[in-house]
Automatic annotation (TrEMBL), chain A:
GO biological process: barbed-end actin filament capping
GO cellular component, one term: F-actin capping protein complex
Keywords, sorted A to Z: Actin capping, Actin-binding
Name recorded for this polypeptide: F-actin-capping protein subunit alpha
Phylogenetic placement of the source organism: Eukaryota, Viridiplantae, Streptophyta, Embryophyta, Tracheophyta
Described purpose of this protein according to its UniProt entry: F-actin-capping proteins bind in a Ca(2+)-independent manner to the fast growing ends of actin filaments (barbed end) thereby blocking the exchange of subunits at these ends. Unlike other capping proteins (such as gelsolin and severin), these proteins do not sever actin filaments.
UniProtKB/TrEMBL annotation, chain B:
One of the record's GO molecular function terms: actin binding
Compartment annotation: Cytoplasm, Cytoskeleton
Protein name: F-actin-capping protein subunit beta
Family indicated by similarity: Belongs to the F-actin-capping protein beta subunit family.
Origin species: Forsythia ovata
Length: 309, 217
């Protein structure tokens, strides 16, 4: 962040202003970047600097929050993620085999084109991807009222037959935006699935992140993260899909339970460590009779005051 | 300024110090407004002479403390204002982490900062008290099975009361602050934390309701 400056004399350089603007944009809670952008613009009072900061911050924010955009012809949706990125403004949707062209700052999909053959996985890989995608869609529609998901091949998409390793990423994202109720939240899961041919094993690593923001006359945020691992046997596509989805379902359900537990523990344990509901005496503090505590005697002696009865 | 305050409501509460210094550098002409309107976690220093800790804030005079929190530091500063009354500022800071004063050892990181500013104006037997309180808190638990769980935030409320001075200012102010802190604590617990929990359950409703107790804290 910028250095301390002499009162009013030193101006911030453009570079410093851009960094500050980017920082605010990148730290926006889910679904709030447009509101933050409006405030940042007002505070900066410099359109040129704002535009540069926005051009750099929005793509990072969008990918980190895995925002979901609809294709212009409403044929489907595309997730803006680092896994689906073909180019800085182009994102692939393997389900509809289209590539979306997006405007990051406006957060819309402006155009779409069919994906090229070299952008898509081989039919061998696609069998696995598609089977897993179908199972995950079923799971997500059961578990999440408004969830979106996708499966991307991030390594080995050109593998044509058994004998090589390949890697998928399963992305699950659910966001609930209720700005009129001053409450927004999101659940993001990223599951790395590595198919290891020599071991005939599939290794799974999950990263779950949950956030919530409540801001009616205040600002309270939940930020929770969790990582887990698991594995299953390398089987034909449909069987793998079922096992993998079971693994995901199991860990995500466990994680939700542990979040509930953390909340349940708050009143009696964690929060209590910060401030009890009542003093240890279990009664309200006897303000009228503070003489029983010697500290006040000290103050009175030092300041030469009468007793405060 | 409105935009600046808007930003403070959206950035993660744990980053409020960074956000404030960013705003101060972008809006130097508004620095006194920003400093007086944006609350920051409190800093504690130790008085070498008597070995007592005290809290730093802009209003600098006096120091004394009270153990109300099972640990925790508090300081009180007072000064006269222009309307022939006075202002008292009660500051409380508690570090509830395992390495701090957290008796139960659950928190990897935990901080409660309370700032209470009371303006007092006396008219014969009655005094008018105007209290503005801010509570900032942050708590983090971290373990293998559930990962990192962090709740943090700040809320600010106002309360005005007219009370007889027969029992003394300390008594009146103390009671107001206690009542306010209780309200804020309960509000944080039930409303604010409750809302974030509700949000989590809305995002992904628990399927096994049997395993859960009813969410009533």
């Amino acid at each position: 962040m910028s250095d301390e400056e002499e009162s009013g004399e030193t101006q911030l350089t453009d570079k410093e202003k851009i960094e500050i603007a980017k920082w605010f944009l990148l730290n926006s809670p889910v679904g709030e970047i447009q509101y933050v952008a409006k405030d940042v613009r007002a505070v900066l009072k410099d359109e040129r600097v704002y535009r540069i900061a926005a051009a750099e911050a929005f793509p990072l924010y969008n990918k980190s929050h895995m925002i979901c955009l609809e294709f212009p012809d409403r044929s489907g949706e595309v997730l803006v993620t680092s896994f689906s990125e073909i180019d800085k403004d182009e994102y692939i949707d393997p389900r509809t085999t289209q590539v979306a062209i997006v405007d990051h700052v406006k957060q819309v999909c402006t155009d779409a084109r069919p994906a090229n053959d070299d952008e898509l996985p081989s039919s061998y890989i696609e069998e696995y991807r598609c089977a897993l995608d179908a199972e995950v869609i079923k799971y997500v529609s059961e578990a999440y009222p408004k969830g979106i998901c996708c499966v991307y091949c991030t390594n080995g998409k050109d593998v044509e037959e058994p004998g090589s390793d390949f890697e998928f990423v399963v992305v699950i994202s659910a966001a609930r935006l209720s700005p009129q109720n001053f409450c927004n939240g999101s659940w993001r899961s990223i599951w790395n699935v590595e198919f290891k041919d020599d071991l005939q094993l599939v290794e799974v690593r999950g990263k779950l992140q949950v956030g919530a923001h409540y801001f009616e006359e205040g600002n309270v945020q939940l930020d929770a993260k969790h990582e887990c691992r698991d594995s299953t046997m390398f089987q034909p596509p449909d069987d793998c899909a079922v096992s993998l989805t079971n693994i995901i379902r199991h860990h995500e359900t466990e994680y939700l339970n542990s979040l509930q537990t953390s909340y349940l523990k708050l009143p009696d344990t964690t929060f209590k460590d910060l401030r009890r509901k009542l003093p240890v005496t279990r009664t309200l503090f006897p303000w009228h009779n503070t003489m029983q505590f010697s500290l006040t005697r000290d103050i009175q002696k030092n300041l030469g005051l009468e007793s405060s009865e | 300024m409105e935009a600046a305050m808007g930003l403070m409501r959206r950035i993660p509460p744990k980053q409020s110090e960074t956000a404030l210094s960013a705003l101060l550098s972008l809006l130097p002409q508004h620095s006194s407004d920003l400093l007086s309107q944006v609350d920051q976690p409190l800093q504690v220093l130790c008085d070498a002479e008597c070995g007592k800790e005290f809290i730093l804030c802009e209003y600098n005079r006096d120091a004394d403390s009270y153990r109300y929190y099972e640990g925790g530091v508090s300081s009180v500063y007072m000064w006269e204002d222009e309307n022939e009354g006075f202002v008292a500022c009660f500051l409380i800071k508690k570090d509830g982490s395992m390495s701090g004063h957290g008796r139960r050892g659950y928190l990897q990181e935990g901080a409660w900062d309370a700032i209470h500013v009371i303006e007092v104006r006396q008219e014969e037997e009655i005094a008018h008290y105007s209290l503005t309180s801010t509570v900032m808190l942050s708590l983090t638990t971290n373990d293998e099975s559930s990962g990192t769980f962090n709740l943090s935030g700040s809320i600010r409320r106002q309360m005005n009361m007219d009370l007889p001075v027969s029992e003394g200012h300390l008594c009146n102010m103390g009671r107001m602050i206690e009542e306010m802190e209780s309200k804020l604590r309960n509000s944080l617990d039930q409303v604010y934390f409750g809302k974030t929990k509700e949000m989590v359950c809305t995002l992904r409703p628990p399927s096994e309701l049997v395993q859960m107790k009813l969410p009533d804290s």
